[in-house]
TrEMBL record:
The lineage of its organism: Archaea, Methanobacteriati, Methanobacteriota, Stenosarchaea group, Halobacteria. Signal peptide: none annotated. It comes from Halogeometricum rufum. InterPro entries: WH-like_DNA-bd_sf, WH_DNA-bd_sf. This is Transcriptional regulator, ArsR family. Residues 85-96 have a biased composition (Acidic residues). Residues 76-96 are annotated as: Disordered. SUPFAM superfamilies: Winged helix' DNA-binding domain.
Amino acid sequence: MAEAEQESLDDLPPSAKLVFKVLEYNGPLTQKGIVQESMLSARTVRYALERLEGIGVVDEDVYFADARQNLYQLTDAAPERPSESDADEAEACCAE
């Protein structure tokens, strides 16, 4: 049997990508914080977090201020944003 292809961030639905960006820009947040920042429904955020955890780009930790909630943050394995030099190279390549 052939191995199933590993899912990546590009393969996820737009809601999961939005949650990823919210965590990227705001840092660790509770699910309630993600709902407020993204303006998505709680159910959609739960599904997006599940998908992001499935590909290993989001970690879930205990939120010590309120142990009933969890704190979500990007892992070290999360794809990084391109640096300015990479963006400059891409522009130079496309401008030719």
